[in-house]
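User: I'm writing a tutorial on reading structure tokens. Could you give me a worked example: one chain, its sequence, then its tokens, then a sentence or two explaining what the tokens reveal?
Assistant: Sure. Here is the example chain.
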Amino acid sequence: MTKWEYQVAPVLNHVAGQILNNFGQDGWELVTITDNGSGNLVGYFKRPIEA
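And here are its predicted structure tokens:
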């Protein structure tokens, strides 16, 4: 059974691609991205825990 760890992080609009690529290079998979109601984006990421 795969065990997961999670990360919640702000995603700045003007550098969103760079931020998402950086998380991806560290093994994080974007699960969803939301607007927190004030125009700021929040990314929810997961990656498997290495045993």
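What the tokens reveal: Strands lie at 4-11, 29-35, 41-48. Helices lie at 16-25.
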